[in-house]
Amino acid sequence: MREPVTDGRRAKGERRRRALIEATVRVIAREGAGGVTHRTVAREAQLPTTATTYYFSSIDALLTAALTECMEEDSARIEALAAAPVGPAERRRSLALLMAEILSPPGHLLAEFELCLLAARRPEQRAATRRWQEALAAFARRFTDEPLRVKLFAHAYDGLLLQGLLADRPPTPDEFEALLRELLPDPEGG
To answer: What domains can you pick out in the chain, each with its CATH number?
Structure first.
C-alpha cells in the first residue's frame, strides 16, 4: 500500500497560518493587543499583508486563533505534568519549574493574559479557555477530590502567574513550590 502524498500547498499554508499566529503573540507581547493589525502581524511574520486576510477573516479571528493556540499549548503542558508517573512532590516541583520558566522572559505570558482579558469582553472567544481550566482541574485532582480545593487551585494558578508578572523579581521555583504545597498538599496516605 502506498503512503499518502502530502499536499505541499497545504503544508505551506499551515506553516504560514502558524507563523501569523506566532507573530500575533509576539506583537501583543511587545505592543499590546491594540498593536495587532494586519500590517504589523504580516511584517512580524515576514509575510505579505494579504496573508493575514487570506488566513483570517478579521483581527478578531486572528486574536481568537492566537488565544486558542496559546491555551491549547498550555493545556497540553499541564496535562503532560498531570499524567507523568511521579509522586505528588515531584509533580508539584515540575509545575513550580514550569511556572518559573514561563515567566522568563514574561512576554509570551503577558500576551496570553491580554488575550484572556479580551475574551472576558468577547464571549465568543471564551471557549478557548475552557480546556485550560479543565487541564488545571485535572492536575489538581491528582492531589484531591475536593471540588472546592480543585477550583481554588485552578483560579489561584493564574493569579500566581499574574502576580509574578507584576513583581519586581519573579518568584523562584522554590517560592512557587511552597505556594503549591499550600494549595495542593500531599494526598492522604500518599
So the answer is: 8-183 (1.10.357.10)
Confidence of residue 8 (pLDDT cuts 50, 70, 90): confident
For 98, the grid coordinates are 514550569
Residue 55 pLDDT more than 60? Answer: yes
The Cα diameter of the chain in Å comes to 60
Residue with cell 479543565: 134
User: Tens digit of pLDDT for each residue in 31-48?
Assistant: 999 999 999 999 999 999
Q: What would the 3-class secondary structure string for the chain be?
A: CCCCCCCHHHHHHHHHHHHHHHHHHHHHHHHCHHHCCHHHHHHHHCCCHHHHHHHCCCHHHHHHHHHHHHHHHHHHHHHHHHHCCCCHHHHHHHHHHHHHHHCCCCHHHHHHHHHHHHHHHCHHHCHHHHHHHHHHHHHHHCCCCCHHHHHHHHHHHHHHHHHHHHCCCCCCHHHHHHHHHHHCCCCCCC
C-alpha cell at 46: 515576514
Q: In this predicted structure, what is the pLDDT of residue 13?
A: 78
